[in-house]
Amino acid sequence: MRTKQLLLTLAFALGFCYASNAQSYHSAIGLRLGYPASISYKQFISEPGAIEAFLGFRSYSLYRWISVGALYEHHMPISGVDGLKWYFGGGASVFLWHYDDVFVGDNNTNTSIGILGTLGLDYKFANAPVNLSVDWLPVFFVNGYGNGFGGGYGALSARYTIN
Q1: CA–CA separation, 6 and 160 (whole Å)
Q2: What is the mean pLDDT of the chain?
Q3: What is the CATH number of the domain that holds 134?
Q4: How far is residue 71's CA from residue 89's CA, in Å, rounded to a whole number?
Q5: Quick check: 31 and 38 in contact, CB under 8 A?
Q6: Number of continuous H segments (helices) and E segments (strands) in the chain
Q7: Handedness of CA 138, 144, 146, 148 (dihedral sign)
Q8: Which one of 28, 37, 64, 97 is most buried, counting C-beta atoms within 10 A?
């Protein structure tokens, strides 16, 4: 009986927190059009806090990489513009690199772990299920290819919002 009361109280508290969330959207899925091009999913876990996960791919003539990562973003409203917020946060990513040197005949595969920061702007259109954001992701590679500060990656994101 006591367990049922605890679960009921917990469910009520979570429902109340969810209902009182003042975000204009709760989750969104779309594309990060930048360096690298990525698929992005953002989910708000509290009024200011969101988690964004992404899967990216980049290819050049001699090398290519895949990145998988997640960020925690803390959103703050910008007064005077409905739907516009700025955000900051951090996270981590794993980079899988492959390099083909056709002149030497060398194939090299490497894995890097990066610690990410994020700083950006987020806008939700009032009458459309569309969210746009632009951000900068400075990265510090812990190991592997690109060891050290990577300067950062940026993107313009376009997402379909889900309430």
Answers
A1: 36
A2: 82
A3: 2.40.160.20
A4: 7
A5: yes
A6: 1, 10
A7: positive
A8: 28
